[in-house]
Amino acid sequence: MPGRFAIRARWRPTPGIRRSGFTCLTFVAGAGVLSTGLSSHGMAAAALALLAVATIAWLILCYLIPAGFMVHHNTAVGMTGADGTWLLWVVGTQSLAVAASALPAPWAHRFATPALLAWSVGTVLYGIVAALVLGALFAKELIPATLVPPYWIFMGATAISVLAAAELIDRTSDHVVSLTHPMLIGAGVVLWAFGTWLIPALLIAGVWRYVIEHFRRGFDPALWSIVFPIGMHGVGTREFGLAVGESWMVTFGRAEAWVALAAWVVVAGATVGQYVPLFRRRAVPQDCL
């Protein structure tokens, strides 16, 4: 009996992971995006190493985090606590598909099928997680404090899914991928349309929160979760337009890059403005106080 309880305790998810939830998967997404950048510069070895690290982390976290919620179920972290951060489950998964399909030759061909499988898992997860998040959102009273910036990941998850589909469409040398071309294009169009449809709703939600309800709580680091979806939507739109031969999507995506840059500048300026007073306070000699 003691041995059995010891085994259960040993495999229990750590409190840190339970508290952080799906935000832990930002590590997977960041590693995947960095691996994609290294591939674009021909650094195959470094890109493969980062992709391997991201894959191992994903295999651990994508099972451990949901298990932690189920084993330690309560209203704070259960289904009623689902929010925009849960979509990082999708973003992390699709980042693997993007990184694998972006590898330089000959690795791109070897990893085409695993990339397709990761994209498929991420696409199905989007439908499941989106339903849970929407259900939680409608299950409680909507107040400014609950309508947090991470809900923009709702759109960002569709954007990175579209980018992964665009990367896979170009992998015509893989037999399995070539068989799924119509499905990839169709799913890409659906996801892009839905993600684009979400943008006005997210903007209206922001106006309601900050302008109409005058919600103010100082600088919120979660504002950075708005920058990534905007940039990813622009990149995904441009790459998908190139893959399917739609020039207007390419133009739209390139223009959106400037919007993403403006959002980055604003949030970066707010971040610096948040910490400058602290540095000034430390720089003042104690004798002058």
Automatic annotation (TrEMBL):
Q: Which CDD domains match?
A: TDT_like_1
Tell me the keywords, alphabetical order.
Membrane, Transmembrane, Transmembrane helix
Its subcellular locations are: Membrane
Which InterPro entries has this protein been placed in? Answer: SLAC1/Mae1/Ssu1/TehA, Voltage-dep_anion_channel_sf
According to the record, the segments passing through the membrane are 21-38, 44-65, 86-105, 117-139, 151-169, 189-211, 223-245, 257-276
Lineage: superkingdom:
Bacteria
Q: Which protein, by its recorded name, is this?
A: Tellurite resistance/C4-dicarboxylate transporter family protein
Q: Which organism is it from?
A: Nocardia jiangxiensis
Taxonomic classification, please? Bacteria, Bacillati, Actinomycetota, Actinomycetes, Mycobacteriales
